[in-house]
């Protein structure tokens, strides 16, 4: 079914457009940075220019990408079950592979595709930053901006490794967010409800005091437990949604 998801994306122009947008938005920020830093003598380290570091003016591309991420992922892969319900293709698939396998593969495929989209878009951004600014940036972090906490010392000692860790965290969150969209879609089987519910959940995690956006931004002064707390809350909501959907589907089968 993973292959069928990819075939659906390939055959749908809107899905292809949104997929390309997700893959290219972090890279487009590189051109904004080239204009923003043109002619300047850069004393900042190169990893401070990576997408998650928020170096772009006004965080424009970050807002467009991260705040609207659930809507993008629903369009690309998450709302397929709504289409299946509308066309009746869902019942043909269930008859062939069984309802449990249908749901499991929907959710697993959504997680894998959502996570991979985030990871490869961030990886492309890193490569382009190195091509555009690799010869102009300092190799050392500006330590005077750090207060010297344990986490900050780790940032200074292993900056690239830390950024890679944040890339993995962002990919994990993206994967679970994509899976959450698929869970809501298979449960409510209505696009309007699915988009509204998933976006509202994501928005709540953005505007909380321990915003999940902070967990997606490396090299900041917040302690590690503060950053991981919002991630843990989000993953807990996704896992509870998964358990709730499984119980709901089991009850429907019993009926």
SSE diagram, text form:
Layout: H1 2-11, H2 13-36, H3 60-67, H4 69-78, H5 80-87, H6 89-97, H7 99-133, H8 150-157, H9 159-188, H10 191-207, H11 224-254
Helix pairs in contact: 1-2, 2-3, 2-4, 2-7, 4-9, 6-7, 7-9, 9-10, 9-11
Features:
mainly alpha, 255 residues, single chain
Description:
This protein has 255 residues and is mostly helical. The chain has one domain. 75% of the residues lie in helices and 0% in strands. The protein has 11 helices and no strands. Helix 2 packs antiparallel against helix 3. The longest helix is centred in the middle third of the chain and has 35 residues. It starts with a helix and ends with a helix. The mean pLDDT is 81.
Q: What number of structural domains do the residues give?
A: 1
> What percent of residues are in strands?
under 5%
Rg result: 20 Å
The SS-based structural class is mainly alpha
Count of helical regions: 11
Count of DSSP strands = 0
SSE order, one letter for each helix or strand: HHHHHHHHHHH
Average pLDDT value? 81
Percent helix: over 70%
Largest sheet, in brief, is: none
Low-confidence stretches: none
Q: What is the global morphology?
A: globular
Report how far the terminal alpha carbons are from each other.
27 Å
Summarize the structure.
This protein is an all-alpha fold and 255 residues long.
